[in-house]
Amino acid sequence: MSDDIGFGVAGCHGTIAPQQDEAFYDDRSDASDDENKGRLKFPTRLYGRDKELDALRQIYDGLAQSSSDSDYGKSRVVLLGGYSGVGKSRLITEFIAQASARHGSPDKKKEAVISASGKFTERSSEPFSAFTQLLGQLADELMASEELHSKVMAKIDQSELIGSDNDAQGRLVLTSTFPSLSPLLGGSSKSRTLGMNAIIDCTIELLHLVATNLDCPLILFADDWQWADTASLQLVQSLLTSQIQSVICVCAYRSNEVPADHSFAKVIDEVKSARNKPGLIETIAQIDLYSLSPEAIRHFVADSIKRDEVEEASDLAEVIYKKTMGNIFFTKQSLEELVRKNVVFYDMMCFEWQYVLSKVELTDCLSDDVVSTVKSKIACCSGTLQDVLVVMSHIPFSPDVSTLARLIDTADRYTEDEIRNALREAADESMLIISSCDKLYTFAHDRIRQASQEFVDGERRNKIRRRIANVLLDGDDASLFVAAEILNSLPIDKAEDATVALMAKATLNLRVATIAKSRGSIEKENELLMEALSSLEQSGKKWADYNFTLDLLNAIIKCSFSLGRYEVTSKAINEILERGRSLDDKINAYLYDIDKYDPVNEYDEGVKRGVAVLRMYGFDIPTSLSPSKTFMAKEDVKLQLALRNSYLNLQKLSDQELPLMSVFQLVARYCLFTNRDTLSKLICWKAVIY
Q: How many Å apart are CA 642 and CA 599, to the nearest integer?
């Protein structure tokens, strides 16, 4: 176990006795060898969800057989609500398995059902995180079959939007926003500034082309929408209200965490409004998943401890049900807790599970808090596995083994083989699950992640998080988002020079904000820019690096203005106008200082301010704002002379010239709004001559 983490907890799973050598006999009663007997092995069948599975089957089969010509008739949306741990993901896994069994063909004359999934996490800081996972899985599924890959790519190549004949611009949009698509589409995933509309259009085009070239409808499943970022909400609303065909989109969320004023609740309302119009067939379904019934829990408990008669486990099931209220995840954790405490044990003489306590005594052995229950389970794991779980709990993505080794221990205390063994142990304990596509591990449930995060606290926890962030600074864009989120949540390390550390944090936040902007996530960009500004101000060296501060404030001006946060915009504008060293350095601030009159319809003031700025830059415009006929005649001559040879000498405007050209455009528009047609013409002439 890592000295840095130093959990120092050595426990056992013991169901026979607390000795270390017998600690392994705690949960699986049907193993073929003595080493694994006594380990609780939960049944794989799904309990109490026949009604919901039947509803999903009818939705999928209806789409597969649909011949509707309506806008939304060839796609389906399922909104799946339910509390944490109620079994939403498990339901969809079973639904996909059953759909594959019904619609796929053993002789492979018909393709298997293609599905892809993604999941938001509570601390995820990367825009489109669930979409990136989902599209990455989809790419893996398509590339797994050479025939399918060729067929789909042939259609994609012909697309006007994302095809190979369009200078690959559409593909660059996709691979820049979703790096997980690079293996499928090729090209670079290097960050570049993108518009949200381009991201939406290209994503929908890709999914539409994939889905319409499959033998069976495509299943897309995204979980935990209560934690989705703003950009993802924009994308999913556009996707679910588009005319995409042959797709069933399942959006799962914690209904108790999505009140009426939640952003995802507003998306749901918009989607329902678009799809539930008179005359259209029903293409959207709301399925609310509730806890299992006492009868379902009795069957689950009886099967878990290998009782042929349900009544034989009725006392145990009743106690567990009262504690868990039928939540299947909590039920499993409660059973495992009773096993760890030797209350439920595997009798090696009779080769069967036993419990001898009364209902009251059983109740007293169960924790009321499921997170505490999971933490007690982690305490019984090996030190290596504890380290693995704690580190993984602080990163929203699934790391490979080599990355995990660096994150856990910079002193190389653990070999990669030891970490692989720990990951397998976690999977055996149902704490982690492994993806069938990329073979990476992720938490089996959010409560397990939460318990792992809380397993250590205080300065020890901060030390772990700081080391994770420092390792991720050398990673890809997704890693940088996590590094920034972690460092922003931590106090400055006492061992570091505070000024240097704060400047480094400001630099990191500006860098990641630029990536967020390139992904179309303006809210995340704004959050990171404000973190950068805060760090810069705390450093006491705000203008020590003039160019950095100028770039940061200009970025804040653009971002805050687009979000309607005009007070923040004005503050940044005023600071640049006060501290800027040249007119070129101030031009962006002047532009938005003029633009601020547009939202409040004060066009007359905008004209006055705009003309004053243009005069500062040397353009001869009458202060009266009413140029005479003589003045206009002279300007007309200047224009004709300028145009005489300009057609052969047109050049692209530089980055410094573009803002000034935008000032011309803005002031000319204000002039039209205030009936100053002659002044508008003059400003247009000045722009052409410029």
A: 35
What's the Cα-to-Cα distance from 77 to each of 49, 200, 244, 326, 397, rounded to whole Å? 19, 18, 11, 27, 26
Distance of CA 514 to the CA centre of its chain: 17
Longest dimension (CA), the chain: 113
Identify whether the C-beta of residue 185 lies closer than 8 Å to the C-beta of residue 143.
no
List Cβ<8 Å contacts ≥24 apart for 502-505. Answer: 502/535, 502/536, 502/538, 502/539, 503/535, 503/536, 503/539, 503/541, 503/544, 503/545, 505/531, 505/532, 505/535
Q: Which residues contact 312 (CB under 8 A, 6 or more apart)?
A: 302
Amino acid, res. 386: Q
Q: How confident is the model at residue 365 (pLDDT cuts 50, 70, 90)?
A: confident
Residue 258: left if φ>0, alpha if ψ -120 to 50, beta else—which one?
Answer: beta
φ/ψ (deg, to 5) at 290: -110, 170
User: Is residue 87 within 8 Å of 289, Cβ to Cβ?
Assistant: yes
Interval 247-270 mean pLDDT: 93
d(CA 63, CA 60): 5
Query: Tens digit of pLDDT for each residue in 643-675?
Result: 776 554 556 666 667 888 889 899 999 999 999
β-bridge mates for residue 355, sequence order: 344
- Residue of 487, 327, 342 whose CA lies nearest to 15: 342
Instruction: Give Rg (Cα) of the chain.
Output: 31
Strand ranges, E, within 71-151: 75-82, 115-119
Q: Rounded to the nearest 5°, which phi and psi values hold at 76?
A: -135, 150
CA 93 to chain centre: 20
Provide the H-helix boundaries in 215-327: 230-240, 263-275, 294-304, 314-324
For 279, residues 6+ apart whose C-beta sits below 8 A from its C-beta are none
Beta pairing partners, 442: 433
Write the CB contacts of 326 (distance below 8 Å, at least 6 apart in sequence): 290, 291, 292, 293, 294, 296, 297
- E strands along 101-246, which residues? 115-119, 218-223
Per-residue pLDDT band at 277 (split at 50, 70, 90) = confident
- Retrieve residue 615's tokens: 């005069």
* Tokens coding 405: 């080794």
Angle at 82 between CA 238 and CA 120, to 5 degrees: 50
Contacts of 479 (CB under 8 A, 6+ apart): 472, 473
pTM over 0.70, yes/no: yes
Residues 6+ apart with CB under 8 A from 289: 49, 52, 80, 81, 82, 86, 87, 88, 91
Write out pLDDT tens, residues 416-430: 888 999 999 888 888
> Cα dihedral sign for 101, 291, 447, 45?
negative
Burial of residue 535 (number of CB atoms within 10 Å: 0-12, 13-18, 19+) = buried
Cβ atoms of 386 and 432 within 8 Å: the answer is no
Please state the separation of Cα 304 from the chain's center in Å.
35
Q: Are 315 and 73 in contact (CB under 8 A)?
A: no
Q: What is d(CA 208, CA 517) in angstroms, rounded to the nearest whole number?
A: 26
Burial-class residue 27 by CB neighbours within 10 Å (0-12, 13-18, 19+).
Answer: buried
Neighbours of 264 (CB within 10 A): 22
CB distance 221 to 116 below 8 Å:
yes
Query: What is the per-residue pLDDT for 22?
Result: 34
Query: What are the phi and psi torsion angles at 112 (to 5°)?
Result: -70, 160
Contact 217, 63 (CB under 8 A): yes
Checking if the pLDDT of 212 tops 60, the result is: yes
